[in-house]
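Holo prediction. Input below; ligand is PRP.
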Amino acid sequence: MEYLTFALAKGRLAEKAMEALGKTGIHCEEMKEDSRKLIFVNEDIKCRFFLAKAQDVPTYVEHGAADIGIVGLDTLLEENRNLYQVLDLGFGKCRFAVAGKPEAREILDKQDLRVATKYLNIAKDFYYNKKHQTVELIKLNGSVELAPVVGLSDVILDIVETGSTLKANGLEVLEEVCPLSARLAVNRVSMKLKHDRITEIIKGLKELELK
Ligand code: PRP
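Structure of the complex:
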């Protein structure tokens, strides 16, 4: 039997993903050990698992280096890769929102609003296609909440989970963009060639969701 390869977004999601897969009988003891290894195998069930940066998971899946990816909808939307997005896994719930200092509420619709974000494609879609507003997009790579605090931008478009990062920096949600959660993505060719195994996994995960 060929290996079935899973790409997991490193961090919070990977743990929850392995927990969910574990409940369907797909597990990997080796992964629980603390190590610098990047790829793990369970020979008994012919599965391989690797951890990648979230933004790279859709790339591995699109190219078939992974049959299945587990990653946030935020990343799938931003990367817009050619793959099947088959299932909302129901965990990793958070949302995209526009946030800033409370006084920025007054200027949300102004032309040339300065928006800092890690998610340029999502921001373009939100402002240009949905709001029909011209804005200045400023790309950052992390700790985006800093931008309005130090005057780099008027607002940010970012992920909000608990809201504690915003609160700790005197910022608040000003506009909702969309809800987010973890998704199961499948390579288009794998879906045909490994159809039975993949369908079985999807079925198992769907049953979990109903509980
Ligand atoms: C995400 C996001 C926010 C924070 C939101 O950042 O970009 O900064 O989590 O979570 P909260 O609402 O529960 O406070 P992440 O931890 O991925 O780090 P980074 O953006 O700094 O890379």
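The CA atoms of residues 41 and 48 lie 4 Å apart. That is the main takeaway for now.
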